[in-house]
Structures are given as structure tokens and as C-alpha cells.
Amino acid sequence: MNEVFGIAGLGLIGGSFARAIKEKTDCRVLGYDINNEVISAAKEQGVIDGGLTGSIKECSIVLIALYPEETLSFCKENFPLMKSRTIVVDCAGVKSRICAELSAFAKENSVCFVGGHPMAGVERSGFSSSFSGLFNGAVMILCEDENTDSGAIEKLEKFFPVLGFGSVKVTTADEHDEIIAFTSQLAHLVSSAYIHSGALKKRYGFSAGSFKDLIRVAKLNCDMWTKLFFENKDNLLKETDVFLENVRKYRDALALSDAGAMKKLLKKGAELKAADEKEEEKWLVSQKIKNFLDDDKKPYIQINVNTQGGKYPVIIGEDLNFGKLALEIKKICRAVIISDDNVFPLYGNTVAESFSKSGFQTDTFIIKNGEESKNLNAVSELLNFLAEKNITRKDMLVALGGGVAGDITGFASAVYLRGIDFFQLPTTILAAVDSSVGGKTGVDLQSGKNLAGAFHQPAAVFCSTNVFSTLPKNVYADGMAEVIKHGMIADKDMLLCLKNMAVSEMCSRNVKIKAAIVEQDEFDTGVRRLLNFGHTIGHAVETLSNYQISHGSAVSIGMMMITRACEKRRLTESPCLDELKKTLESFGLPVRCDYSAKQLAQTALHDKKRLGQTITLVIPKTVGRAELFDLPVTEFEDFIADGMEE
User: Within 13 Å, how many C-alpha atoms sit on residue 284's CB side?
Assistant: First the structure.
């Protein structure tokens, strides 16, 4: 989206709209307010790019955050000045009169008018109280009638969630005013009336949550709410009469000392509240599903990873709309998709189209598939490509593929311009459950695997699980080696039921394991080293085979050798080897290799897990629990020998 927005009224609502648009899109914002000091402040803070007066013809969408009368005057004066098919949304708290007076007039001037009401606010008002997150999770109400342009509604339904709204509800102006009298206006009226009690001055030390709940909205904008009350007078009178009638019933029960009547009233109130909570829960679920679906897409699982290097979501589901999800995290910018020559022909165009439809400008960089591409030359070529394309810090990289694409992209994003955002779109089980999460990025050197790299957390991980069904059997098995590793070190129950587990659940359980460990030890100095189970010997196997033995197969061999050595040396608390071997073989993974203990030891001692004269191994104690074990390097060859199959 690269448009010009106009905002009339830069108070709490209008100012927050301006801030959200500037923060979450690359659109220009022009503003108007009756107070010139507010306009100056908004310009100085970068909340608006210029004034709206005299420039309204540039705007494709105009949001009006004024009082009802001022809204009518503004629209009647400015509709004739707007370009054809400008979308205008008023945000006043009442709709019937505004929509009735402006609907036909807008059509006469070729303007697409939609009545709106953002269901958000705080106890303060004015531009100084505005903030970009005001609308996060809120409902945006849109009112339509016979003159409403359906295309405008459709565009707004897509736009408002970009600003943080949790859902968009389309209704009529009359229904809006009828319901809002109950859900908003009556609540403000009752809160204001309640606080008039003479007991207010004596309440200190006697009041708690229920008192605060009831007076929360009593501190209100008197001018605004007076106008809103009288604009919706008939509906508010009706709801006030119903309220007074119900309060009278409680008063009568008290006056007559009728405990039975009081209990009955209280019970009915409690039942209505319980029923309402159930209905609200159903509605919220339906809205969540609606928001997560786009073109018949299924709901997804979201796991949040919180590290010092950044907080980001891992989203797991089928047929994910990557562009739409990215918009929730990143402003519209340029997106460079990095993939390999096997993956891109399968998914590249679909992914690029998804980002393009959401407003991102895409470029692509293709590497040769395979571990041999994970080197400094590939990173250097990518960095030069980014520089030639004038990619800036505001832009982002997108890793589409397995671990190699993710590692190269992550490393490049860590060092290009000293760090830019990148997204992980794993297409293998291995990348989904392991390498895409945690921020480890890097490449191989001639001396060993992953010896050059950086810790750089992704902005998000989007895992579309339906791609796994197309994986070759050996590539699928590669990923299962990492899944089995997680089961061995942290989740016995998962390990024992892998064959019957849905792929989305399997991925989410593994991501949760890794996230929990990474959050404790982001930089691999402590507990995170448990994730290296099988990797010290596994990396040696990969290197000795010149990467003809895949990562997953090598880790499988490494886990078996470590576990066999631990059982032989009685380092385990209960038997682990048989369960591990059975599980690995059930997925077609190897459990032995032909390299000697001497070859493996010499190669493994170049591993970054070596610290001086010791090397840290991960040893299983039981199925589902492991520990770190420091071994003198002089004993490492003998340890490996104990792990060789006899």
C-alpha cells in the first residue's frame, strides 16, 4: 500500500490513526486540526507529512475524527474538492444522522462514504495522549447502506487490521446507534451518575476493584459525550429506562426485605453474565478464525519467542498467507527472497505473489542447492547483490528453503548494513523445527561446519506445513533426526508417539522446546548446548563425507555413538539406546558409519564446542532428559571408540 491518507481531527483517535499509519505502512499522511499548535506538533514529531487543507485532492482515503456537527460541515465543504472514488470514513460515536445526511451527497460527488466507529479509547484525550497501539485488538465498526460502495468496504476490511484492529464488523447506522447506546453510552452515563454519591469522600481504604471498574469511565470529555448523548437521545433514553426499571426491582426487594426476590434477581444476573461470556467466547473464536483465514486458509498455531536479540512469532499452519502475516510485523518495504534452485521453482512465484499482493516490492536471489553452497563466497555474492539493488535498513530478506538458505540469509542480514530484518520461511522439517528458530546463522569453512556466523534473530518464522508432504523421503527423515533429538533431551512423550502425531503438533512441540531453551541461553554458553546432542560427532561425519552424508543422517549417527558410549560407561541412569535406535530406524535414518574413531575425533576437535583442553558433549541420562558433560580432549578418541558398533 503506497497511498496518501488524510486525517481530519488530530485528537486521541485521529492522532492515533496517524501514528499507526506512519508506523505500520509507508503511506504519506496529511493532517487537519482546528488547533494550529497540534498541527505543528504533529509535523515536528513526524506523525503527519503535511497539512490537509489545500491538499485533500491528493488523498485516496480520508479519516474524519471530529464531533458530529463538525464532521457534517467538513464533509459538505470538502466532498466537492476530493478526487473521484476517494474513500471517506467518519469516526464519530453516533452514525444515523451523519450517514443519512452524507450518504447521498457523497455519491453525488463521486466519493465513497462509509460510516465508521473505532471501538477503542483511553481515559485521556487530545493529540498528546494519542499512540500507535490504541487500536491493537479493537473492533472497527463500518456502517453501510444502499449507496455504499462494496469495493470500499472490502478495501477497508483489509486495511484496518494492518493498523492493529482485531476485527472489522459491518452493520447499519441504525443498528450501530441502537446497540452503542447500551454498550457504551449507558455505561458512561451510569459511571458518571454513580460517582455523585456523598460516600465518595469516605471511600478511601474501603474500595477495591469493583469500585474502580464502575468509575473507570466517569472521567470523560464532557463536551464530546454531551453531544453524543443528545445525538442518540432516543436510543439512550430507552436503555436508561430499562436500566432504571431493573434497578427499581433490586431496590424494592431491599425495601421489602425480600431475600428470595433479591436472590432470584442476583441469580438471573449471574446466569445472564455466564451466558454472555460463552457467547462472547464463541464470537471471539469466530472472529479469530475469520482473521486467520484468507482465501479459505486454515487457522494457525503461534508460538512467541522472547530473547534479548528480539521477540518474534513462529507461526505454523497450512497454506499461510506470508505477505499478510508479514504486514502485521513489518511496514511495506522491499523484500528480497533468497532461495535455492530446487525450492524456488516449486514455491518461489507463489511466495513472491503473496508478498506483492500485500504491497511489498520483491526481488529474488537464487543459490545452488546443497551444503556446498553454505560458504563465504555465497554470502559475499548475496551482499553485493543487496548493495547493487540499493537495499536499505528499512527493507528485509526472506529465507525460503531449508537450513542452508536460512543460514546464508540470516548471516547476510546480520552483517549487511550492520543488521537488517529477515524472515524465515522453512520448507523442510529440519529447518522448521530447528535451524529457523533461535538466531544461529552462519556458513562453513574448509576447516569445519558453521565456523563463521553470527547470532541474529529473525523478525518472524512462517512455517506452512503443507509443503512437507512433497519432501523426498530422505529429506523428511533428515528433519526427523532433529525431532528425535528434541525428544531425547526434553520430551519423552513426543518421542514415543511420533508416528501418530499430526505434523503441525509435532512442529509446534519442537519449536516450544527450542524456544524455551533459547530464551534461557540465547548465545549458546549454557543450557542451549543441550541442543547439540549428536552434533559434535555428526558434524565430523558430515565433514569427512564432504557433505555427501546429510546433516540429519550425520546427527542420527552421532546420537547413536554418544548414547552407546554413555551406556557402556554407565553414564546413563536408565537404558536409552534401544529406544533411540528403534525410533531412528523407523524413519529410515542410519545408526552407524565407517569412519574410524581417530578420524572422527581429529575432525570433531575443530568443532566450536571445544573449549581449550576439554570438549563439551551432550549425554542422555534417560529418554527425555540429557546433561552437559565436559570431557578432556585426550580421552575423546577412546570415548568415540566406545560408541562404535561392535
Answer: 8
Task: Provide the H-helix boundaries in 45-138.
Answer: 68-78, 96-108
CA distances, 272 to each of 83, 185, 211, 277, 280 (Å): 50, 20, 21, 9, 12
How many angstroms separate the CA atoms of 227 and 169, rounded?
Answer: 24
- Does residue 294 have a pLDDT over 50? no
The three three-digit cell numbers of residue 603, written as one number? 575432525
- The pTM of the full predicted model, rounded to 2 decimals, is 0.56
| Euclidean distance between CA atoms 281 and 380, whole angstroms | 52
Q: Is the pLDDT of residue 606 over 50?
A: yes
State how far Cα 512 lies from the chain centre: 15
Decide: 396 and 423 in contact? Cβ < 8 Å: yes
* pLDDT confidence bin for 268, thresholds 50/70/90: very high
- DSSP helix/strand/coil, 121: coil
Pairing status of strand 4-8 against strand 61-64: parallel
**What is the distance between the alpha carbons of residues 487 and 593, in angstroms, rounded to a whole number?**
23
Residue 626 pairs in a beta bridge with 620
Q: Are strands 614-622 and 610-611 parallel, antiparallel or unpaired?
A: antiparallel
Distance of CA 215 to the CA centre of its chain: 34
DSSP helix/strand/coil, 256: coil
Strand order of the β-sheet with 610-611 is 610-611, 614-622, 625-632
Mean per-residue pLDDT, 342-364: 93
CB 601 within 8 A of CB 544: no
Whether the CB-CB separation of 96 and 173 falls below 8 Å is answered with yes
Say how many CA atoms lie within 13 Å of 7 toward its Cβ.
29
Task: List, in order of start, the domains of the chain with CATH numbers.
Answer: 4-171 (3.40.50.720), 301-471 (3.40.50.1970), 527-643 (1.20.1090.10)
Q: What pLDDT was estimated at residue 359?
A: 87
State pLDDT tens for residues 421-442. 999 999 999 999 999 999 999 9
CA distances from 96 to 92, 93, 157, 278, 375 (A): 11, 10, 21, 30, 65
Q: How far apart are CA 624 and CA 643, in angstroms?
A: 20
Most confident region among 113-122, 211-220, 379-388, 609-618 by mean pLDDT: 379-388
CA angle 133, 134, 138 (to 5 degrees): 105
In this structure, what C-alpha cell is assigned to residue 280? Answer: 462472547
Query: In whole numbers, what is the pLDDT of the chain averaged over residues?
Result: 91
In sequence order, the 6+-apart residues with CB closer than 8 A to the CB of 120 are 13, 16, 134, 135, 138
